[in-house]
What we know:
It is found in: Membrane. It catalyses: ATP + protein L-histidine = ADP + protein N-phospho-L-histidine. Helix content is 54%, strand content 19%. It has 15 helices and 16 strands. The strands form four sheets. The protein has a five-stranded antiparallel β-sheet with strand order 6-5-9-8-7, sandwiched between helices. The model is unreliable at 611-618 (pLDDT under 50).
Amino acid sequence: MNLSLRTAIIFATLLGLLLPSGVNGYISLTRQLDNAQRQISLDHQRIADILVLGMQEPLWNLSPDAGKPLLESVISDERIVRITVNDSTLGLFIEANKPERRRGHLHSLTRVVSKQGSNIGTITIELDDGNATTRIRSEQRLYLAAVLLQIVLSLGLILLLLESRIIRPLAELSRQAIQLARRELDEAFVWRRSDEIGTLGQNLETTRKSLKDLILTLEQKNLQLETDILGRRQIELALRASQDRYRRLVESTHIIPWDANPDEWRLTYVGPQAEALLGYPLAQWYQEGFLSSYLHPDDRHHAYRLFSETSKTGVSEFECRFLSSSGEEKWVLLTASAQCDADNKRTLQGFIIDISERKQAELDMERYRNHLEEVVEARTRALASANHELEAFSYSVSHDLRIPLRTIEGFSQVLLEDYIGSLDVNARNYLARIRSTTHNMTSLIDDLLNLSKLTRIEVRCQTINLSALSEEIVDEFRSLQPQRQIDIQIEENLRAHADPKLMLIALRHLLDNAWKFTERTQNAKISIGANDINGQTVFYIQDNGIGFDMAHANKIFSPFQRLHSHTELTGNGIGLAIVQRIIHRHDGRIWAKSQADNQTIFYFTLPNKPQADHRLPH
């Protein structure tokens, strides 16, 4: 930092006067700021605790509207700028934002919301400390005004003393220093002051005398300069030797330097490594037409490109093949650039780099790529054959396996009808169990065929009304069990872009599960609806049936996985596997949340949609 003497003295004096008061003021303001920030942190934690408790139920039930009253109550605090609530599966759940409140530093706090041991979401609160720091800034301004007043008063007194005791004597010293720079050494410098400036002036007089003597000495040193010129010539000789060593170093590498005359199409210099590259002596490389003679026949057009086009464009680089003395092809990377010598005559300079190993690796890679394509084609044919065998197996299951089942069922029916008097109670019970088992086997075969068809059936999407499909299925269930008293609520005009046949199957299985699981529940209730979460529509089917333990949630969509025994509920355990495949065929997701002996909610999405609105107009 370059400061004048006047500025440095003023700065040092003011710093000595203001430093103690500045430190005291800074410590006081810092203590106030720490207290304000500590209070803000405590309030921040308290607000976060309130939101974590209040958002457990809305996040668990995916009901943003249930959490909005608490969010609006908390955001009424003028210090809070933004609150975001995120679901662990769907992302942003609800948000409140007041960006106009931001005036100071923003503090952010994120807390995890848990229920029943599972992390169901997070809450982030951003709180501004602007109001808390406004008073402190006001005190800082008052403190600054007091410091400035003190600076003005101190500055006037300092300038008065500086002008008389320091500035004018320094101006005289400066004049005498300029005389020294101009070599005006005959006038003596007289100083009668006994302070530091007087001492400096006396030293300047001593310097004048020494400088006068030094000039005489320099004249003698000029004679010695001629000797130094001789030493410089020796240095130039050493530099040439260094350049020679550099040339030898280049020639000892695998990169071959070369020079050429473009007018004669002839190499004028080539590194000695060229002999090892092709096996020809260096003298043969310098022959006219060497490149056009020993380039591969398919690459000889590069000789014209090298000597003609490079002279015009100034730079060139290409790959080509040379024929060695043994007849072997050598791949090289040839670089060239046009230069002008001292006589303004154009020459070519460049390098020859052996890339045969790299080219061989590229050829091996190409052969391997072709081999991979053959393997893929063979596996494709094998996959087509496997699909054909699967279709044949499905045909065998649907026809050949049903015949013995029908035979067993028919003969057991005959025994029950024609020989009922000859059979005791145990025999009739055995025959009834045989018929029941054949019915279950037939149902199992049908489920297997349906599951295998879902992987091959074409999905034809269109706009469908899920509410109408659900009402159709519920009416069918009520007609089969008119004695059931169950409250079913279906949200109106639920729309989706999906295959109507596949969605009818999926809804039938989901509603059949809800119908069965609420069979032993008093005040049974089933709800069908949708929620908009972060711009995405999530459909749900909810019941208050027997539910299941979430520890087994990863099994419910696997074929033949049952969480309840056959004595409790009927079925083969394949319905939810069919539902999952149908939803996945639509590029959607399906998941479930449940509490044992309480409720079950199945959620699913259908993202393949031409429009964002999932509710039909009334």
